[in-house]
């Protein structure tokens, strides 16, 4: 093995602000920094090969953030907000039928009129172009995989991963040392369960005195449907079948432009049954008699999956550390009841940018931006999350039917009177600790895919365009192989094979001995394994820059 001390020294570049992640939060922060002070030097690193390649969301966007960031965006003929919401439907699904809930029963914050159905991937491409017009340097294909600190423990920048490292960990013939990007402040906008954010939260104890973060896995397909099945501007949310009443989750159909329909399924990752497969439940959902007719004669165009932060108000960590801050989904700003987070991502990026710009103008650098952490709870972000803070805990505690009912009442009370009889409820255990031994549950036999409406994992992964160079270190790090055998397999029945939506993990018999196989090239970067492994024995880190899915119109 090559000694780390023998590696060439990193080249470095200095900026006023370094931003990790070209999602809505990171790009909004970059744009806002340049709006406040055009002389600031700003760089955005993006691990995807192009901006938007790794972005996956429903998505119905509340324009409150974009309206503040780019007030005249409607005058831009290239803007991506093409489909305004025209109808809002809420369905409860049973095995053979559905009931539509009257819209007047829903709290006002659940109303989607005035919002837009979009491809969030296209939104980030548009934002990146706006940022570059202002002089922001955007570097796609560069995964930040190390936080750089000074002797006082303050963050001074990040380093991109080395390229051309071979499977055995040694530099290959095309080896290139990563770059160090140094800044007065570093903003972390990697999205949910980002690898750098996870390290920073641990190092600086940012989650101390907070509830554990909660997660869901969101699976999505993009379809081209027959014109007679297409209803532009229709937003349809549903819950119930195929999940039982003790397993949290929901589903959506969003009708975009050009006869396209986004169909998605969200499963809360605090589920108990290790035999459950989120991917298979998603496929079953599409066969429901209230859902299947939409896709008759249609064509599936895309597939992807992504973890979603669901802890909300009580799970948001401290946002600042010496030298930087967390923004967007790295901070956990998703409103789980509304199934929306991009508006808060934009607002948080703007807020952090304003505090960083103010600090730099005052001659400060690499200290703690306390004002940002203090401001968010009284901002639009805090007001948005506080009203729904008990929805997830009530759902988890009371089950789907009673939990959703009481959660809806709680949202009404928070909206009308600014209070809740429950105060602020806790979430309890982290999601990995919710999984129960396989012996406590009956195996689930899922139907075989028909290749028309329902599909297998590998054909789905093909549509995600994911790609990883095989001759590189596996980016899904198994900490203790023996623990994986005696616990993940022997106690929990090998749930990694089911919770992963991309066929990454398998238990294979080799001479009668079960072997844990990691097909890292299939990974769509959803981070579910990092969250749901019952022993926290799998650590997701970025592969070489640019690798992973290449989502189009997702």
Structure, described:
It is a single chain. With 554 residues, this protein is α+β, with helices and mostly antiparallel strands. The chain has 4 domains: 4-71 and 122-210 and 317-386, FAD/NAD(P)-binding domain; 82-117 and 213-308, D-Amino Acid Oxidase, Chain A, domain 2 (2-Layer Sandwich); 391-423; 432-540, Alpha-Beta Plaits (2-Layer Sandwich). 24% of the residues lie in helices and 24% in strands. It contains 14 helices and 24 strands. A hairpin with a 5-residue loop joins strand 11 and strand 12 (171-176). The radius of gyration is 23 Å and the shape is globular.
Uncertain regions: pLDDT < 50 for 5+ in a row? none
The proportion of residues forming helix, as a percent range, comes to 10-25%
Outline type: globular
CATH fold topology of the largest domain: FAD/NAD(P)-binding domain
**Which class best fits the helix and strand makeup?**
alpha+beta
**Span between termini:** 41 Å
Query: CATH architecture of the largest domain, please?
Result: 3-Layer(bba) Sandwich
Radius of gyration: 23 Å
Catalytic activity: a ubiquinone + reduced [electron-transfer flavoprotein] = a ubiquinol + oxidized [electron-transfer flavoprotein] + H(+)
Protein name: Electron transfer flavoprotein-ubiquinone oxidoreductase
Pfam families: ETFQO_UQ-bd (PF21162), Fer4_ETF_QO (PF05187), Thi4 (PF01946)
Cofactor: FAD; [4Fe-4S] cluster
């Amino acid at each position: 093995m090559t000694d780390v001390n023998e590696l060439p020294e990193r080249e470095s570049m200095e900026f006023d602000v370094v931003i990790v992640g070209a999602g809505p939060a990171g790009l909004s922060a970059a744009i806002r920094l340049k709006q406040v002070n055009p002389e600031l030097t700003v760089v955005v690193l993006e691990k995807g090969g192009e901006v938007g390649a790794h972005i996956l969301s429903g998505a119905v966007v509340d324009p409150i953030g974009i309206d503040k960031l780019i007030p005249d965006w409607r005058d831009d003929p290239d803007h991506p907000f093409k489909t305004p919401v025209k109808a809002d439907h809420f369905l409860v699904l049973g095995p053979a039928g559905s009931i539509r809930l009257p819209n007047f029963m829903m709290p006002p914050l659940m109303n989607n009129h005035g919002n837009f159905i979009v491809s969030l991937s296209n939104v980030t491409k548009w934002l990146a172009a706006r940022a570059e017009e202002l002089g922001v340097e955007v570097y796609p294909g560069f995964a930040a995989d190390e936080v750089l600190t000074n002797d006082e423990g303050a963050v001074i920048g990040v380093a991109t991963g080395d390229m051309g490292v071979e499977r055995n960990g040694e530099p290959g013939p095309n080896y290139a040392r990563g770059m160090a990007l140094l800044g007065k402040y570093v903003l972390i906008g990697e999205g949910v369960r980002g690898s750098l954010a996870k390290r920073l939260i641990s190092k600086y104890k940012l989650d101390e005195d907070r509830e554990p973060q909660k997660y869901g896995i969101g699976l999505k397909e993009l379809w081209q449907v027959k014109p007679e099945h297409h209803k532009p501007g229709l937003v349809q949310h549903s819950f119930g079948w195929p999940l039982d009443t003790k397993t949290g989750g929901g589903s959506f159909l969003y009708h975009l432009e050009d006869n396209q329909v986004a169909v998605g399924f969200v499963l809360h990752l605090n589920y108990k049954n290790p035999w459950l497969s989120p991917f298979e439940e998603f496929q079953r959902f599409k066969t429901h008699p209230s859902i299947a007719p939409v896709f008759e004669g249609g064509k599936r165009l895309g597939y992807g999956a992504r973890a979603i932060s669901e802890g909300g108000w009580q799970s948001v960590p401290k946002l600042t550390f010496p030298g930087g801050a967390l923004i967007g989904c790295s901070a956990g700003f998703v409103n789980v009841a509304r199934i929306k987070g991009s508006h808060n991502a934009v607002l948080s990026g703007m807020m952090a940018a304003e505090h960083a710009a103010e600090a730099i103008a005052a001659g400060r650098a690499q200290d703690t931006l306390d004002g940002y952490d203090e401001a968010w709870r009284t901002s639009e972000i805090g007001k948005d999350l506080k009203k729904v803070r008990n929805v997830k805990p009530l759902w988890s505690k009371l089950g789907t039917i009673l939990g959703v009912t009481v959660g809806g009442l709680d949202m009404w009370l928070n909206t009308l009177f600014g209070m809740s009889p429950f105060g602020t409820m806790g979430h309890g255990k982290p999601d990995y600790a919710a999984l129960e031994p396989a012996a406590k549950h009956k195996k689930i036999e899922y139907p075989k895919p028909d290749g028309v409406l329902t599909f297998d994992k590998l054909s789905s992964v093909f549509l995600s365009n994911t790609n990883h160079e095989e001759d590189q270190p596996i980016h899904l790090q198994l900490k203790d192989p023996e623990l994986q055998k005696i616990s993940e397999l022997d106690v929990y029945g090998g749930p990694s094979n089911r919770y992963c939506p991309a066929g990454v993990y398998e238990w294979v018999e080799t001479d009668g001995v079960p072997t844990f196989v990691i097909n890292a090239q299939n990974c769509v970067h959803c981070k579910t394994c990092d969250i749901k492994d019952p022993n926290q024995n799998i650590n997701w880190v970025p592969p070489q820059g640019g690798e992973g899915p290449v989502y189009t119109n997702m």
